[in-house]
Amino acid sequence: MGVLPQPVEALLETALVSELTVVDPSGRPVTHPLIPLYDGEVIYLTSSILFSKKLEHIKANPKVSLSISDPVAVKIDRFARATIQGDATVDDSDLHSGWERVLPLWRKKEPAIDMFLGKRVALPLFFERGVIEIRPRRAFLWEDGRTDRPPQVFEVARALA
Amino acid sequence: MKPNPDLIGGLEERFAHAVIAYVDEDGYPMSIATEFRVDADRGVVVLQAVAGEAQPRADERVNVVFSHIRPQPGIGYDERRYVSLWGPLRRAEEGLEFTPERQQHWDEQEMTFFEYSERGVPQALRYLERVSAEQGREVRPKLPFGWLFLRTTRLPFLTATFVPVLLGIAVAAWTNGFNWWLALITLIGGACIHLGLNVANDVFDTASGADAANMNPTQFSGGSRVVLYGLLSLRELALLSLGFYAVGIAIGIGLAAARGWDLLWVGVAGALVSVFYTAPPLKLVHRGLGDIAVFLGFGPIMVLGAYFVQAQEYDLEPLLASIPVGILIALVLYVNEVPDRPADAAAGKRTLPVRFSKDVVVNLYAAAVALAFGLIVVFAVAGWIVRPAIIALAAAPLSLPVYRALKEWYDQPYALMPAMAKNIQLHLATGVLLILGYVIAIVADAAMEDPPFFLT
Asked: Which of A12, A72, B51, B60 could form a disulfide with A38 if both were Cys (CB 3.0 to 4.6 A apart)?
C-alpha cells in the first residue's frame, strides 16, 4: 500500500497520460501532458531536454499538480478522475542514463519504449532526460469522473516528511 | 501566439474534455477536468462549472488544456495532440466562460514527432548550458562510441565507395589480373576519402547554417547533426575530416609509388572533387554541381583508380562500366536533396531540386535511370563491357517505387524515407550485379576453353 488512497493509486498505475501543471516565473500555470509513473511513494515523470522548460520552472518553483482526466487513456474498471498536488524536484545529475532507473515503470505502460531506446542514435537528445519526482501533498478524487460534484480530499504530505 | 479561430472552433471535434489549471491560494497549481463546448461566434470556450472548495477565483487568468492520445495495447499510444490556451475565466449563467488569449499546440498528424523534437534543439542546448553552470562541469549529450562514429561518418553510405572500387577491381581481374592486398588497400583508401568527404560536408553545412535550418532531417538527409546536438564540437569534426583525408591521401600516394605515378591523375582529381564539394571557393554543391561531382567521384574516378591499381594502366572498359553506377549514385544524392531543398535554399545551396520544379526533378530522375540502364544494355550488347553484366537490368524495377514516391510525397520528407532507402538499394543492387557479371565472365573464361559469346 502506498501513500495515496487506493483509487488514486489505481489511476496512477494505469494512466497512459496525465497533465502536469507547473508555475512559470510570471506565476502563470503551464500544463504539459506526460506519462505518470508511480512506485507507491513518489510520482515520476521524465522529460527530454528538448522540452525542458518545465524542468526549469520546477527548479524555480517546486509546487506542481498532476491530474488524471482522460477516460480513454486509463484502463480501469471504474473510471474516476484525480488531481494530486505536491512538491517536485528535478534530478538532472545524469541526463544520459539517470532516468533509466524508472525504465521498468515506463516499460509497463509503454512497451514500445525499448524499441525507441534501440534507436537512440536517431534521437540522441530525446533520450537525454531529467526525472521529475513529485512527493504528494494533497489528493482530490472525483468518483465516476464527475467534477461537477465535490471531490474527496486527502491530505498526504506529512506522511512522507 | 494568439489563438487561431480555426483551432478553437475545432476543439469539440478533436477533444473529449478540457482541464482547467490555475494557481490556488497556497500557491500550488490545481488542475480539474471538465466538460466544454465552444461558442465560435464569440470566440469563447464554455466550461462546465466544477464543484467543491477547489475552485478558480472569479476573473482569474487560467490555463485550459485539451489533450488526446489513442492507446495501442501492448505498444503504447499514438494520435498525440494537445492544445494549451491561456486567458481569463469568468463565471457565467451556463458555467465558466473562458476567453483564450494565447495558444500553444501540437498534433503529431500535422507535425511529425521528429520535426517537433528538432524544433526543441535550441531549448535543449540552453538547458545543457544551464546544467553545466549548475554542476560546474561541461554536460554534453552522449552516444556510445560506435553509434557516435556511425552517425558522424554516416558509415552506411560507404556502399557508394565499395561498389565503384569493387567494380574497378572486377574489370581489372577480367582484363589483366587481380591482387587481394592491393584490392584491400584500395578499398580502405577510397573509404577514408569518402568518410573525409562526409564529415567535411557536415563541417561546412553546420558552419553555413544549412543543417540548422533543416527542421526535417532524415537518416538520409540533413547531415549528421552531431555538432548541432552538442555531441561533438566543430573543431573535433574538422579534425576527424582532416584525419580521414590524411590517411586516404597517404594510401593514394603509397599506391601511386608502388603501382605507377599516373594513378595521381585520378587520385588528385578525386581529392579535389571531394574537398571542393562543399569547401570554398568552389563549393560545387552550392552551385548545383554536387550531382556532377558525385557522379565523377563515385563513378569514373573511383572505378578508374581501382582499375589502375590492379592493371597499372587506364582503359576504356572501366570508364564505360563506371558511367551507370556514377549516374545511379548521383541520383542517390539527387533524391536525398529533395527533402533538404527549403533548408538548402535558405543556406544558398542551389542544388538541382532547389533550382527545378517538382515535375522537372521527377522527370529528370526517370530520364537518368533510363539512361543508366540503357547504357548498360548498349555497352553489354556491343561487348564494350562483359555481356553477363546485362543482368544488372534486374535491379531496374527498384527505381519504380522511388519514382512513384517522388510524384506522391515530394513535399513530405518522412514519407519519402522509404523511397530514399530504395534508391540506395537501386545503386547497390545494380553495382553488385555488374560486378557479378564480371565474376561470371571470369569463371566462364577459366572453366571453358571457348566460352559462348554471351558469357564473355
From this structure: A12
